[in-house]
Specification:
The protein is mostly helical and about 120 residues long. It has one domain. About 85% of the residues lie in helices and about 0% in strands. It contains five helices and no strands. Helix 3 packs across helix 4. It is globular and about 45 Å long. The two termini are about 15 Å apart.
Amino acid sequence: MEKRNKIIYWTVTGLLTALMLMSAGMYFMNYEMVSATFLKLGFPTFVIYPLAVAKLLGLIAILSKKSQLLKEWAYAGFFFDFVLAFFAHIIAQDGEYMMALIAMVLLVVSRIYDGKVFR
């Protein structure tokens, strides 16, 4: 059971990490496209770079296991980010909500199995 929990945790957390790295990388490398999307969704563009940095710091907090408090804040921050993204895409009716939904599922499963594996 312990081994299965670890496999699930690391698989899901690895997928979440890949998704966040791709997202943050896109924010830095493809600013114009991301900026247009943010404007379409009604978000200010000045949050793009800070959000990219926050995603990277959140990953570090989750993966480093240095501080339980920082890890919990990172999980919470990602949850709010994904919920806001999901509903922004639903309201904009652009059909681009699936990645936010997938990210939410990965995040919740990662958090559940984090508690099973590391406590």
